[in-house]
Amino acid sequence: MTPLRSISTEGTCPIFTQEVDPVLLKHSLEDRVAYLTDFLNFSSHDQDVITRIATAVNGIIPSLVDSMYAKLFEFDITKKVFMTRNQGFDGPLPERLEDLTLDSAQIVFRKVFMKAWARRVLTADYSSGKTWAYMDKVGVMHTGVSPFKHQRTMGIAPLNVPYRDCALTLGLVQNILQTAILQLPAETADLQTKIDAVSAINKVIWIQNDLFSRHYIDE
């Protein structure tokens, strides 16, 4: 993966127009990420500012995850997803939707994975292809097809969630993270740092969104 580079965001006419192969965008994760980061001007500066605010924002992750699941439980179509056993969970499952609560064993189990993903967003090395490969697998695993060989071998079922609800959930997460950044005290982050961090998180979430949609939408 090409290291992140500094990118000018000035609205000047480009000297040349890049040629982009749509076939490579569809089949090559490296080419797709290169296109996404170029298009969104995701640079080494974005990486640096996320790293700078990560420790200060890390503390809100448990409440972020709790808020996300509470929202998913407001609607039957998003709550029903968790009536299916998945991702290696071998504990008890309720038989009726109304018996599924935020304290149910599978929900507690799922929250562990969500917290790990949120912390990865704040601490990842975005110059590494491994980071984008991980985020791409997060997208795949919600489609009902496991991207992990050990899960397929063991017969572990992945999640099967409509893209609509994945995108909405990412929007909710983005809003919570950005609000937390804006609420940081001045002694922790000055105004420019907050602006830059909100922008950087916005880019990461939209890239993650694309790494969901590419597995749902055939284009």
Secondary structure: elements and pairs:
Blueprint lengths: L21 H6 L1 H11 L4 H15 L2 H12 L3 H4 L25 H19 L5 H12 L8 H6 L8 H20 L8 H26 L3
Helix pairs in contact: 3-10, 4-6, 4-9, 7-10, 9-10
Outline the structure in words.
This is Globin-sensor domain-containing protein. GO terms for molecular function: heme binding; oxygen binding. Residues 30-219 form the Globin-sensor domain. The protein is mostly helical and 219 residues long. The protein has a single domain, classed as Globin-like (Orthogonal Bundle), CATH 1.10.490. It contains 10 helices and no strands. The chain has helices at 22-27, 29-39, 44-58, 61-72, 76-79, 105-123, 129-140, 149-154, 163-182, 191-216. It is globular. It starts with 21 loop residues before the first helix and ends with a helix. The model has no long low-confidence stretch (mean pLDDT 89).
